[in-house]
Design goal:
Length: 56
């Protein structure tokens, strides 16, 4: 019986660890996407100001 409990605990621990790793990966992906969006926005802003400059 004790052996079964140990096995269950091990399963729980393993599940917990793999869940944490998945969350970290998702957070990293989210950060990368945010950085890409910010970069794209600043590029668009630069283009817009350049257009405005040439229009003047």
């Amino acid at each position: 019986m004790a052996h079964l409990m140990e096995f269950k605990l091990h399963q729980l621990w393993f599940y917990h660890v793999s869940q944490q790793q998945q969350q970290q990966q998702q957070q990293q992906q989210q950060q990368q996407q945010n950085q890409q969006q910010q970069h794209r926005l600043s590029v668009e802003e630069n283009n817009a100001t350049q257009d405005a400059g040439t229009a003047l």
